[in-house]
Amino acid sequence: MTSIPESPDSSSTGSGDSGIGSSLGPPLLKVRGLSKHFGAVRAMENVDLDVPAGQVTALIGDNGAGKSTLIKTVAGIWAPTAGQIFWKGQEVHIHTPRTATDLGIATVYQDLALCDNLDIVQNMYLGREEMRRGTLDEIKMELETRKLLNDLSVSTVKSVRQLVGSLSGGQRQAVAVARAVMRQSELVILDEPTAALGVTQTGQVLELIKTLSSRGIGVIVISHNLNDVFAVADRIAVMYLGSLVSEGPISNYDTASAVEVITTGASSRVPARYSSAQ
């Protein structure tokens, strides 16, 4: 049966915990000096970032700040121009999305990459269908899908045989995240997961994010909505003009200081680089 990692001991996680590299061990994901150039354009320059397991890291910044470049480099879409990527303390070279997936890194983009004409089960297993005696094992796939959605506290879906095209935005986001988790992902990257969602649907997605981190899964959330960021994040990392200019526990920031860093690249009220393990 599909399994989700058990929750870590509560003493080692939580908002404001800056013990990366100590009680938590090495970060799940660590990038050092990561850069990406497109000819003369320096889209990302010398980025250092730690992402711990079991916590939500909010990656924020204005349009063009380099957030998508960083994520696509980690996800294997683009090869970095320079720098290193470490996974569970070991240096890795992520050249393709398949490499990232095999490591346990899943990225859910804004378009969700779902097939509206297929039902939830078919979307969950698309390209990796379960077979039994030469035919599709529909019963196993359906049971696995129901169990996973239940484990993720997704209760608004009436039937796993609903066409995805009939689902709400929040439900579609839940299916895309569940598909990523089903592949035994240890880090889930969510690109603007609440964009264009209503209040109720946004609340459902935020609860899903909390459930992921409570299960020990590391989460990176890219968002322009600071209300959502402060509702779920344990840590904040701010990109500005291709550089990571501020990073630290959510307790180091408030909305005003976060906006200041996003728009100017600095704030006198928060440190530029807070307790980032080297």
What would your notes on this structure say?
The protein is α/β, with parallel strands linked by helices and 278 residues long. The protein has a domain at 23-113 and 186-264: P-loop containing nucleotide triphosphate hydrolases (Rossmann fold, 3-Layer(aba) Sandwich), CATH 3.40.50.300. Helices cover 29% and strands 24% of the residues. The chain contains eight helices and twelve strands. It has helices spanning 67-74, 97-103, 120-124, 138-151, 169-182, 199-214, 226-232, 255-264; strands at 29-38, 41-51, 56-60, 82-87, 90-92, 105-108, 131-132, 135-136, 187-191, 218-222, 235-240, 243-249. The strands form three sheets. The protein has a six-stranded mixed sheet with strand order 6-9-10-3-11-12, sandwiched between helices. Strands 2-1-4-5 form a four-stranded antiparallel sheet, covered by helices on one side. Residues 1-23 and 274-278 have low confidence and may be disordered.
Please tag this protein with its features.
six-stranded mixed sheet; 12 strands; 29% helix; disordered C terminus; four-stranded antiparallel sheet; 278 residues; 24% strand
Topology:
Layout (H helix, E strand, L loop, with lengths): L28 E10 L2 E11 L4 E5 L6 H8 L7 E6 L2 E3 L4 H7 L1 E4 L11 H5 L6 E2 L2 E2 L1 H14 L17 H14 L4 E5 L7 H16 L3 E5 L3 H7 L2 E6 L2 E7 L5 H10 L14
Parallel strand pairs: 3-10, 3-11, 6-9, 9-10
Antiparallel strand pairs: 1-2, 1-4, 4-5, 7-8, 11-12
Helix pairs in contact: 5-6
